[in-house]
């Protein structure tokens, strides 16, 4: 993919983000932060590539260990972020009709 | 190892996970759809991780699975155990992890560029990738060290008071210019020292940027760091040419930016003045000389219970003090008792109440307060004129009429609740001595219709509940 296509996706995604986030109800702003936190850990993709590489290049071994450490950190966030969001969202209840 | 040959189905899979993340945020437009949205997010993440694992030759699967298991277990247990009142520091801690992960991924890409398909066999990294890598590492490092400071301040492990270094504006600007300059130089010289200097300076600037910001501005800081963690992921997405990372980074980046904007607006402060820091540093800054002794009325739990039971409508305004005192469950109990007695009870939440956006809503939800009894500032502010009791618990600046009338007040222009229009105001406060974070006196204390209930918020509410039952 060339740079311009990637940039186009990025700019469009910023606009999508803008409109989607404005429609989030203020009551759910804390879960919003928790879930954005979880999804920004998609950076694990980069960590996995580094950790998976076998390469015999000079820095490859260091790179692999840094990647593995990043996998640990991102996993904390993914599992923790989604779990804590789910926990919060489960608490939001409507008035019971009597 | 030949890279670049990302199969087209993999690109589609990354796109799908990006779309699922958009749906995850879309779900948060109402509590009813939010749970489904969260599941979309999890599926999106599973697709992204699965696709990466399938499309790359993996030399070390056991290590990778082990790393995921360790991280996942830590995250899961933390998420189960954390108290809802501690949510702001948890979010700050999570931000710091995203930042550090971005730094590590950037460094891995620098050390083994062939694996990421950004360098030829000679190991020379493409110039454009170097800029993206440099920016990704810089933003990640700022997110990391900034979030660590925010975490320490929110967790009370470090004083929430702003720490002001002399000449800090010059120092900060200089450091930022140096980071940008080094990133530009990085395109010419692929040397280790350049990227190491960018990393080190970015860690320092993240630290310098957050220490002068006071406790009251924490909602803005947490949102801002949320935004940074998104931009860091996006920068890495550019390096890796990965759509899932770019879409997510853009979403998270704009989300944090919008939240920061909402928080600034709710305090009538400009983003720059928050970043410059120092707010709430000097208590004598505003209205200090005006703090003469004025008469005020003290009430007891019994008085409060009597008035509350006789009221037709009560609006409860919770603030950070409620979170500190863990009074949300007692408060809901009081609300239930009053509803049983036929009183109309509503909750009013200011956008900056608490230490992060939506903090109070989560605490009330935790205490089983139905979310359709909880209202935002602009939706409920017109109702104070018809309300019998405005019940303020742990809030202060957000009900201060000086924001409407006193042009010299540091909080002038901030939207506040019109509690002064209510027939009776009950104000739970620990003592008369303390002032809000802004360090200004509050006229509401001395109004004729105000009853000061001086005690720990939780104890006071529990006593009121007991008195209502009698």
Summary tags:
heterodimer, A: 98 residues, mainly alpha, 4 helices, 72% helix, B: 470 residues, alpha/beta, 6-stranded parallel β-sheet, 17 helices, 6 strands, 57% helix
Q: Which percent range fits the helix content of chain A?
A: over 70%
Query: For the report, how would you describe the main beta sheet of chain B?
Result: 6 strands, parallel
Number of helices of chain A: 4
Secondary-structure element pattern of chain A, one letter each: HHHH
Description of the structure:
The complex is a heterodimer of chains A (about 100) and B (about 475). In chain A, helix 2 packs antiparallel against helix 4 (about 60-90) and helix 3 packs antiparallel against helix 4 (about 60-90). Chain A has helices at about 5-20, 30-40, 45-50, 60-90. Chain A contains four helices and no strands. In chain B, strands 3-2-1-4-5-6 form a six-stranded parallel β-sheet. Chain B has about 475 residues and is an alpha/beta fold. In chain B, strand 4, helix 16 and strand 5 form a beta-alpha-beta unit. Residues about 280-290 of chain B have low confidence and may be disordered. Chains A and B meet through helix 1, helix 2, helix 3 and helix 4 of A and helix 1, helix 2, helix 3, helix 4 and helix 8 of B.
Give the structure's gist in a few sentences.
With 98 residues, chain A is mainly α. Chain A is 72% helix and 0% strand.
Write the layout of secondary structure elements.
The complex is a heterodimer of chains A (98) and B (470).
Chain A: H1 3-22, H2 29-40, H3 44-52, H4 60-89
Chain B: H1 8-26, H2 31-55, H3 61-81, H4 87-111, H5 127-154, H6 168-186, H7 192-210, H8 218-240, H9 243-266, H10 271-276, H11 301-310, E1 313-318, H12 320-325, H13 328-340, E2 344-349, H14 359-366, E3 374-376, H15 377-380, E4 389-393, H16 402-405, E5 424-429, E6 450-454, H17 457-469
Parallel strand pairs in B: 1-2, 1-4, 2-3, 4-5, 5-6
Helix pairs in contact in B: 1-2, 1-9, 4-5, 4-8, 5-6, 5-7, 5-8, 6-7, 8-9, 11-17, 13-17
